[in-house]
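the two lines:
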Amino acid sequence: DAGVIQSPRHEVTEMGQEVTLRCKPISGHNSLFWYRQTMMRGLELLIYFNNNVPIDDSGMPEDRFSAKMPNASFSTLKIQPSEPRDSAVYFCASSLEGLAAYEQYFGPGTRLTVT
Amino acid sequence: TQLLEQSPQFLSIQEGENLTVYCNSSSVFSSLQWYRQEPGEGPVLLVTVVTGGEVKKLKRLTFQFGDARKDSSLHITAAQPGDTGLYLCAGAEGWGSEKLVFGKGTKLTVNP
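prediction for all of em together
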């Protein structure tokens, strides 16, 4: 089975531009998580969905960030406008609710650089 | 806010040595997980511990969950260069929430 798929793998953009990150979770998984990883702050949860519904977005830094999950097989994380401090690796993860201890499976990440 | 502190932050050892890394919190977790992350990739789940005092072994790796479910350790016996990576612990809040709280990790380098 394919794992979590993320695109693009790398994104370089200029400050002020809109950035859209994409994620396809593992088929059959019903929870999806967006994380951001930096050296300073480690891995931080931004938002998570269950059955396509946003459950907890308390980690979303500010209104410039938004996330959608229009169906069970696709999610996007959008940053508009982007700023240099948004530079990080963004991971998507999925899990199957009910599975013991909510084990999460991560994608390979998108490395975002905002200049 | 629940926090997980991992120590040491960095560890560089020679092949064949043993090592232990720690994950500590003042909060109780319903379960705790260990992940390994290699450069350019996402974290990969190694193990989940659920019961206080639980010990799990995965080949040369031994994982322990503290009796009070606030801390955990990972012990590697006879480390190999292939063990190199970032080791992350993650606590599950549980009780209806699917959120995981991650520590900042221990970066392990095993030199041949």
